[in-house]
Specification:
- With 115 residues, the protein is α+β, with helices and mostly antiparallel strands.
- The chain folds into 2 domains: 32 residues; 81 residues, no CATH class.
- The chain has 4 helices and 3 strands, in the order ααβαββα.
- 2% of the residues are buried.
């Protein structure tokens, strides 16, 4: 019975999305992101299996606070290598938020040797 209700609900939501009232799923990034224009984006990366990224792990008692500096340095290094500005970031205990801006104007001036 639950499967039937789920299927019925899915058909209903899909019909509404076709009517243009709302979109059921997010659009593909390639349809909304133009790599030739400067844009700002929010991205989140989470750990897996309840792993502890930073701070004091309450289960093991280990401190992983040293990783905050490592993550900051790595973000700076990668941003410079890929032509991206890291506008802001927040390292939480089990995930990281970053606000990124792509820089196609900067990358366009790179030579083959720089790439």
């Amino acid at each position: 019975m639950v499967a039937g209700l789920t299927s019925c609900l899915h058909r209903f939501l899909f019909s509404l999305s076709l009517a243009g009232e709302f979109l059921m799923a997010r659009q593909n990034r390639r349809d909304i992101f133009d790599p030739n224009e400067v844009g700002a984006f929010h991205a989140v990366q989470r750990t897996v299996r309840r792993a502890w990224l930073c701070g004091l792990d309450p289960v093991s008692g280990k401190s992983f606070e040293h990783r905050r500096t490592w993550i900051k340095n790595r973000l700076e290094e990668l941003a410079a290598s890929f032509g991206i500005d890291c506008l802001s970031f927040a390292v939480m205990v089990n995930h990281v938020h970053v606000i990124l801006r792509n820089r196609p104007d900067v990358v366009a001036g790179w030579s083959d040797g720089q790439i």
